[in-house]
Amino acid sequence: MFDLLSNDIGIDLGTANTLVYVRNQGVVLNEPSVVAVESGTGKILAIGAAAKEMMGRTPGGIQAIRPLKDGVIADFEMSERLIADFIRRVVRHKYLMKPRVVISVPSGITEVEKRAVRDSAENAGAREVYLLQEPMAAAIGVGLQVD
User: Fold this and answer.
1) Which residue ranges make up each domain of the chain?
2) 46 FRET partner, CA 20 to 30 A, in 16, 59, 114, 145?
């Protein structure tokens, strides 16, 4: 019953792929971290697997962008759109309350990049957003005691 009220979401924001975990459901989304954009207008044509399929085969007017490079955000706007799209796909108004979201971020991320990640999750409808550095997330994931 209470699972219908709200849900907790964990996002592993990766350079190659982004994974979204939903409490009590496991990993529900594993998509490439790619956004396809129309060059002239900036209009987003596809995100995730559909955008990756366009890589290398896109006509001159379409750009396939990887918004994260070497573990850091290279394109703030496209990263925000990617995160927002993935959260919306998972939530889809199934819950009465907005979700709490934990996003793993690279340890070398700047304050500006942290703000961009946090804002994107909030703009996508997150009730609360927590950022967790990837090394800490990895330690927790393998069961190490973290204080």
Assistant:
1) 2-30+70-141
2) 114
Distance CA 28, CA 22 (A): 7
CB of 28 within 8 A of CB of 90?
yes
Q: What is the pLDDT of residues 93-102, one digit of tens each?
A: 655 678 899 9
Residue 95: other Cβ atoms inside 10 A: 15
Strands (E), 14-61: 17-22, 26-32, 35-38, 44-47
CATH class of the domain at 2-30+70-141: alpha beta
- Per the prediction, the chain carries an average pLDDT of 84
Per-residue pLDDT reduced to its tens digit, 23-46: 888 999 999 999 999 888 989 999
